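ugh ok fine here u go
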Amino acid sequence: MQSNLAPAGSIKRRRIDVSADTQDYSPSKGGASAFPQPSEAHAALMAGGLGGSDDSDGSEDEELGPRPTMQPRSENDIQGRLRDLEKIAIYMAQKTRTTKKAKKQLRVELDENSTHVAQLELEKGVLTTKLDTAEKQVHKLQSEKRQCEDELEETQRKHKSQMSQMHDDQQRLQKDVAGLRDELEETRTNLKSKRSECTRLESTVSKQASDQIELESSCRGLRAKVEQLEDVVNEREIRIAELEEDVATRSHTIEELEAKLRKEETMRRNLHNTIQELKGNIRVFCRVRPLLGEEKDAAAALPISFPSCEDNNQIELTQTSENALGRTTSKAFPFKFDRVFSTESTQDIVFDEVSQLIQSALDGYPVCIFAYGQTGSGKTHTMQGPDTISADEKDAQVLGIIPRAVKQIYQNTSKLAERGWEYSLEGQFLEIYNETIQDLLAPAARATTTGKQTKLDIYQDSEGHTRVKNVTTVSVDSAERVHWLLARAAENRTVAATNCNERSSRSHSVFTLYLQGTNTLTGESSSGVLNLIDLAGSERLSSSGSSGDRLKETQAINKSLACLGDVIAALAKGNRHIPYRNSKLTHLLQESLGAGNSKTLMFVCVNPSPLSAQESLCSLQFATKVNSCQIGTARRQAAS
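structure:
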């Protein structure tokens, strides 16, 4: 009987209770048909995702439609080419999201299959343990059978011996019948006893024979179950091999999709930079401050108007004067910029236009955004937001460009981390007051014994980047960190009252964010810098009513702004020498202001009040000069 059983060492043994019915693992209650089959969505994804991974750049996507192409246009049709490129960029962004969604679904199915494989391994161990237990029971029953056979053989031997003795006694009695009658009764009694014992032994032998038959039947049943369990184990092993092969295939598909995402990220950066270059590497936005207080009642009489146009890029200022005869005359001054924001424009609308330049800084380009205008025109509100921001308002719509820019950068770096990019961000906050650089983040311990800060000098490092010696550099490790920077800088910044504004900024504030990025998968690197500047109020001495220290401050402010105008004019003329070193402001911004690989945006902020019409006219005229400046193509900086 042992020869028909599987060898005991052919199956791995585990100490697990096998009291459960082995019918739970038969084909009728699960078996091979109980395994989950790949979903239709997965089959469709494998058919579509793997089949079209090589030529997806030029094929037609069922959900996104045909890929936009560049339409034949004339060389002067810049706007048309720009729209074609924007459509392509939108299409590529949508395609990237679709690919990420497919990647996420494949990862979920991979986790499910891994869990299923683990469950099958556990079931295999349980079945192996049950098989070992059944073999042990068979060996035990066989041992009991041999013991019963030995006992039967001994009983039969004894019975045969007793029968032989009885036969001898009978012969002896027959011979001595006459002399042994007295012993006859005793002999009969003994005979009866022996017959009774013989009957009992025969009954025992019959019972043992019946038990042997039952044991043989049980052995046959166990043998059949063992064979059935071996078939189930073989089917499980085949299914496990299939699932492992499927897992390997899907892992390879995921790697291909990740490589495709990295390639499309590089393409997106190139397309994004091309769009920014077509828009201009020096751009000018005009923003008219929202009406305050009594200005809302006199909105109809304000000198600022916005001609109706599709691009929202025109503004008109009407100046009223009185001639020698006492007659009032009006003269309209129309201006056109890259974008004009009316008094109704919110911080969200303004930042939506700026966000593309913030992305350029993350891609590795020097970017400079500065707010220009007279005091009280809303420069600080545009760049930073309100003077004080409560904890509940940090994500509100009142936040300015600086906190929104840092938040956008952190959101994008989190997404790029999935494609192998790692970024480090460091920030500094300076002010230029009376042509002296001051550190707005410097602790008290940094001051000298005279009560003044350590001298801060501008220099160029070994990589050609403009830096400041002894400046406090803070690691910006979260988007909320920038609120602390703004609050600390606001405490130290120089402000004073003038005729134009009771809290006029008397210095230029410069927030600089250095972005160092490295791709651990492709080896790429980038080094970008983002300068966000809130310039001091530009105003004539006669309008500000300054005297004493305020007069000296106004003269220093106007001088630095004049130097900024000289730099812009030199760039517009294409001069070989650009007078960056004529002021601390232009020297500090040399890398991001008009250089061949930089992108510059100027916000000209306008006060809508009739009393500020002349100052607004001067600001708009200066902004027109800046808007006429053209520079070369921006080059992406790679970190050394």
